[in-house]
Amino acid sequence: MDFRTPELDKLAAETVPQAYFELSAEDARDRYFADTRMLDGKQLAHNRFRTNPRTLVDHLLDQLALTGNERWLDLGCGNGFIAEQIRPHLPQGQVVGLDIAPGVLDAARQRLAGVATPCDWIEGSADDLSMFSDNVFDRVTAIYMMHYVPDIAACFREVRRVLATGGRFVVTTDRPDSMVEMFGVHFAAMKQMDAPAHLFKATPKARISLDNGREQLAPYFATVELVTWQDQLRFTAVGPFLDFYAAHNYCCAASRPGDGLEPGFFTELRERAGEYVQQAIDRDGYFAVTKFTGSFVCQ
Length: 299
Ligand SMILES: C[S@@+](CC[C@H](N)C(=O)[O-])C[C@H]1O[C@@H](n2cnc3c(N)ncnc32)[C@H](O)[C@@H]1O
What we know:
- The protein has eleven helices and seven strands.
- The chain has one domain (6-298): 3-Layer(aba) Sandwich (Rossmann fold).
- The protein is an alpha/beta fold.
- 38% of the residues lie in helices and 20% in strands.
- Helix 8 packs across helix 11 and helix 10 (238-247) crosses helix 11 (265-284).
- It binds S-adenosylmethionine.
- The site of S-adenosylmethionine (SAM) has 22 residues, from helix 2, helix 5 and strand 2.
């Protein structure tokens, strides 16, 4: 599926800033992922509005090439949404989920309670894997989480150490222009509101994206293969789009609440962004949000 068009490229060139937000592991732990709200919002929208019939998990299963007995470490496992679907492919294997946020980790633990495959849930930061011996995992994944990790190089060094010979490390992230239509309406609304300049930044995934991930991984792994795919979410009503937008902390503008903004700032931002989205729905029947995403498969 190729959703790329000259219009979308033009929007990306005009819209995506070079500077990007940097989010801390502490904020991830104590605020964004203190409970499952943000993950629920994103996962629900993908389930309801995606147009690519192949899910994220379908793509991951291709990349993981499981035989059923692998020992799998999922870094930043979140609420276990992915582990729940991959776990049945490991009937003789083992699942270890590690996450910095006890709130979502608890949700993962409960979600997979009682399954046949042994599961362990560990609270910690992905750049410190000192609780594991060398060569103990056949697969390690880091799915939409590496941009939060304080010391990315230390994480890669640690993954190399814990990965068994012949094992695979799959790092999933986005291109910086992924979801450009959402950024388009967001920045248009913020310009109308004369929002502060420091809020005009790109996604934090630009820190380790499909554009710059290979050079960060190459020092630690013999081969780094890039596998990409696309999807397009098509929202047919404004409400579900606004829920999705809120689940992204309004393109991170709300990642630090009270950051000198007037009370009601985000209420107005929602209303204005919603107006653009409604115009697209009236014109086209839906508002599209295109995902440019993929994984680095490292061995
Ligand atoms: C966007 S969520 C992705 C969750 C899951 N991988 C998925 O795709 O559904 C990012 C996850 O990374 C976790 N995280 C953030 N910083 C981390 C760190 N330093 N080490 C481990 N996990 C971290 C967050 O708590 C959150 O669960």
